[in-house]
Amino acid sequence: MRTAYSVETVRAAERELMARLPEGALMARAAAGLAAVCAELLARGRGRVYGARVVLLVGPGDNGGDALYAGARLARRGAGVTAVPMDPERMHPGGLAALRAAGGRVAASVPGRADLVVDGLLGIGGRGGLRPAAAALVERIPAGAAVVAVDLPSGVDADTGEVAGPAVTADVTVTFGAYKPGLLTDPGASRVGAVRLVDIGLDLDGAAVALEAPQHADVAALLPVPTASSDKYRRGVVGVVAGSEQYPGAAVLAVAGALRGGAGAVRYVGPAADAVLARFPEVLVGRGRVQAWVVGPGLGSGREAEVGRALADTDVPVLVDADGLRGLDAGVVRGRRAATLLTPHAGEAAALLGVARETVEAGRLAAVRELAGRYGAAVLLKGSTTLVAPGGGGAVRVNPTGTPWLATAGSGDVLSGLAGALLAAGLGGVDAGSAAAYLHGLAGRFAAGGAPVVAQEVAAALPRAWRSVRD
Ligand SMILES: NC(=O)C1=CN([C@@H]2O[C@H](COP(=O)(O)OP(=O)(O)OC[C@H]3O[C@@H](n4cnc5c(N)ncnc54)[C@H](OP(=O)(O)O)[C@@H]3O)[C@@H](O)[C@H]2O)[C@@H](O)CC1
Ligand SMILES: Nc1ncnc2c1ncn2[C@@H]1O[C@H](COP(=O)(O)OP(=O)(O)O)[C@@H](O)[C@H]1O
Ligand SMILES: [K+]
């Protein structure tokens, strides 16, 4: 897992470490790591550091201090370094002295040309949108300059990834000690570029993880693999309640996801049986025993009773998606014994929360936590960075795979079936949701390969995604 910690947790670890080290040691480590990444970028872009034009945007706190000390290192290697303060009265004094001693200069405005801009305006001490003085500097970043953000791009909230107003968009973010949730969650995640983690010696063992991004090995460890003693029932039968006369395709796609998700068998319940069987003759039709239900894709309206019937089976895991989420009763969900996984997109999440879709999109982490808390169930919030929150609080998972090409009709139906198969195999709600999102995102990338993709192709690419994770 790639783990991210809240600002509060990072600050506590920093305090503990600082108490044991000489003053300034942590900032020196941070600045050394930052300068090394800057030098690497300059060497790659123009062959050498000597003679490069480097601009430091310097905020009033320690984030600015990091930038100044790193700038001093680059100046000692022959770069022309100009520091532009947000407030000339408030610059890290030690950092400023170091930069001046190394031959760097201070200017009141951002030079028109630069090879590299170092964003040291705000780090984990930034609150709310950028104030006008900071926003004015960000607007003046010269076109064509590589942008390195110090700790995080200024204007991105470190704990939530929220971006209120203008913010820096970086090519590389050099973050210190630990990932912050805002670097991995949109809209912030879209601003960070490549993230480089600099070890400054923080000890976060045992600290509460705020957000975690599974990697190949984590997902491989979750995926069920049949053994000599397996039979189709032990592998898990998935019941799919999906599709309608108007939307028969949703049933076909959810079934495709379930079959490709390793279900021993899929049982289809609904009015689209002909369409399902035409595509997948291996499907069983009609009610019977299942190890998990997937309810909702393409149901249309007026089918609440079928959703209620699945949820009433409190010992069987249930995934509720799409139309099934309409009017979902929190009391019923909370009362269930087996896993429940809700898989809304931003619009569906907004309807459940009674807020505007934009509110969910701007604060995805808060929205998914709030929903999971209200329903006491795992919630997978789809979108550019898919998040999966546990019902009982704790670390939220963020999916690191995926591609915007997945924003195509029916791809969510495939995801539902896939996650349902993993629930049927015995995974809990968060594990099933995050493993499914991971495979689905990989399959989307494989199927798209930089060109438009349709949902059936995502389902067809799932075996390749599965193999690549297990390799
Ligand atoms: N601690 C450590 O051990 C280490 C920390 N390290 C580094 O320190 C960074 C944290 O430094 P920090 O705490 O000084 O906060 P920082 O992010 O520089 O900003 C605070 C200043 O900004 C201001 N301000 C706030 N919001 C604003 C806004 N929206 N728009 C404009 N201004 C705003 C606020 O001003 P005020 O509200 O007081 O007017 C305050 O003065 C961390 O990210 C990392 O880079 C590394 O060296 C490794 C060791
Ligand atoms: N911008 C995006 N970047 C990456 N993935 C996206 C983006 N937008 C949507 N997706 C993914 O595409 C799928 C769309 O699902 P959904 O909205 O339910 O569509 P449908 O109901 O048509 O199947 C989800 O897996 C979602 O995470
Ligand atoms: K910054």
From TrEMBL:
Pfam families: Carb_kinase, YjeF_N. Its cofactor is Mg(2+); K(+). It catalyses: (6R)-NADPHX = (6S)-NADPHX; (6S)-NADHX + ADP = AMP + phosphate + NADH + H(+); (6S)-NADPHX + ADP = AMP + phosphate + NADPH + H(+); (6R)-NADHX = (6S)-NADHX. K(+) binds at N63, D119, S154. AMP binds at K382, G383, S384, T385, T386, G412. InterPro entries: CARKD (IPR000631), Nnr (IPR030677), Ribokinase-like (IPR029056), YjeF_N_dom (IPR004443), YjeF_N_dom_sf (IPR036652). Binds 1 potassium ion per subunit. Keywords: ATP-binding, Isomerase, Lyase, Metal-binding, Multifunctional enzyme, NAD, NADP, Nucleotide-binding, Potassium. Its EC number is 4.2.1.136, 5.1.99.6. (6S)-NADPHX binds at residues 62-66, 123-129, 151, 250, 298, 345, 413. Residues 215-469 form the YjeF C-terminal domain. Residues 10-208 form the YjeF N-terminal domain. In the N-terminal section; belongs to the NnrE/AIBP family. Homotetramer. Catalyzes the epimerization of the S- and R-forms of NAD(P)HX, a damaged form of NAD(P)H that is a result of enzymatic or heat-dependent hydration. This is a prerequisite for the S-specific NAD(P)H-hydrate dehydratase to allow the repair of both epimers of NAD(P)HX. This is Bifunctional NAD(P)H-hydrate repair enzyme. It comes from Streptomyces polychromogenes. The gene is nnrE.
